[in-house]
Design a protein that fits this description.
By secondary structure, this protein is an alpha+beta fold. The protein has helices spanning about 15-30, 60-75, and strands spanning about 1-10, 35-45, 50-55, 85-90. The protein has one domain (about 1-90): Alpha-Beta Plaits. Strand 2 and strand 3 form a beta hairpin. This is Antibiotic biosynthesis monooxygenase.
Length: about 100
């Protein structure tokens, strides 16, 4: 299991619009990558947005980040206070309820 993680700082007050755009734009792009298992977005109190996608293979996680960063630059730029960062790697601990 591998995670693809993207993080950026949002402009204050943009949470609702970010959520709408992510649901309409990013979710279809990321879930279309082979090996897709799950997708989560966390909006922290300091306006940091973190998206976490889970995949079967590292290459799939990297592909998701490549697609996501291109989409972010094109469609989320006006709502962000800076560039998005992306990393991918193996999930070394996990649990489910």
């Amino acid at each position: 299991m591998y995670a693809a993680i993207r993080q950026a700082k949002a402009k204050s007050g943009s949470a609702e619009e970010l959520a709408r755009r992510i649901k309409d734009g990013a979710v279809p792009i990321i879930s279309d990558v082979e090996g897709f298992r799950a997708y989560y977005v966390v909006y922290a109190g300091d306006d940091t947005v973190t998206a976490i996608s889970i995949f079967d293979k590292f290459e799939q996680a990297e592909e998701a980040n490549k697609r996501a960063i291109a989409w972010i630059e094109k469609d989320l730029g006006p709502l962000l206070a800076g560039d998005a960062r992306a990393v991918a790697g193996p999930v070394i601990v996990h649990t489910l309820a």
